[in-house]
Amino acid sequence: MNKQQQDFLERLALRIPPLFEAIAQGNVKSEYIMGVRDVSGRQVRLKLVAEVVDCGANPLATHSQMQPTRESRLRSVDMGGQGDDSNKAATTDKR
Length: 95
Fold this sequence. Notes:
Helices cover 21% and strands 27% of the residues. It is an alpha+beta fold. It has one domain. The longest helix has 11 residues, at 3-13. Residues 61-95 are annotated as: Disordered.
């Protein structure tokens, strides 16, 4: 691993705790879009995702209930030229 790759991973690691914090605040999903790249002519979005996978004791209890979704977008720091800064975002989904 070269210095640039190491720096990228270290900056990326700083994005993980806020994803878990969003889940701790009651969100069911939180994601950070690292960037968008062209791969063989196809647009590919690379992101980190934290998502609740435990349904709880009774998964059908809230099945038909509507709850507001909370989403926030944050501007990211430069990830060392990895992807397009205009497409990077952190989102949270509270259901």
